[in-house]
Amino acid sequence: MSLFSSPHDHIAVLQMNSELEQAQTELFSAHCAVHQLRLRYSSDDLARFGKRDVLRKSAETVSALRDFYAKIESKIPNADSTPCVSQPTPEQITQAVEWITGYLREQHEHYSPVASPIPNDCKARLWPYFSAALLDRVRIIELRGALVRVPDFFAKIRGLGFEPPEIAHMDSLTFLDVVAFNQRLSERALVHALVHTVQMEVLGLQRYVELWVQGFLKTRTHFTVPLEVHAFSLSSKFLRPSIEKFSVEDEVLRWISDGRY
Hints:
Layout: H1 10-40, H2 43-49, H3 52-73, H4 90-111, E1 116-117, H5 120-126, H6 132-137, E2 139-142, H7 153-159, E3 172-175, E4 178-181, H8 187-203, H9 205-219, H10 226-239, H11 248-257
Parallel strand pairs: 2-4
Antiparallel strand pairs: 1-2, 3-4
Helix pairs in contact: 1-10, 4-9, 8-9, 8-10, 8-11
């Protein structure tokens, strides 16, 4: 039974897609956590030494999700009926990098005067993972639904036949060392944003944007851009109960060394 009385019920559709994207974020975080398990332990070791109730419940959850999404996937219109995705020219890519770099700097200047330091209780939990100097320097602002301004150049990008990311649905956006939360601060979103701050500092803003654009053009969704994958992975790792601490800067340097961005 459909919840929509009319195909033009735009508000309900927007809400549904917002919830769908939130679910996608949670699924992607879970995928990153499982990937870390896969890298560290064999399936034989997990089956032999892992807690049986945890393994069974996890397998049941995955099976139920697979069935749920498979049913939806079977009803999605055939991909063959959709037009081929065009590729931008090198000049257009260069222009996009310039636009995004300028936008990040512009929004940094816009929010810096009204942003606040990270609360001390948050700093205390984050200190083992980020340097004290970075945590002291970063400023945050909660927009509580006001939402970050959509860049003017998004309209130009759409005019060229490309679809930019939906930044209004993102929990947070990182403008160098200023983090804007579209709603309210959450620890997961803060860690995710701070990973981006570290990435920008280590790579340099120009290179960071170049890699982000390249990744987005390959996948056409911000969730699977390697820079985002790493931020999702590290924020999930941070939230998992563990005595193991890690340096986000060291993790970023490792990914750069391995060419994973």
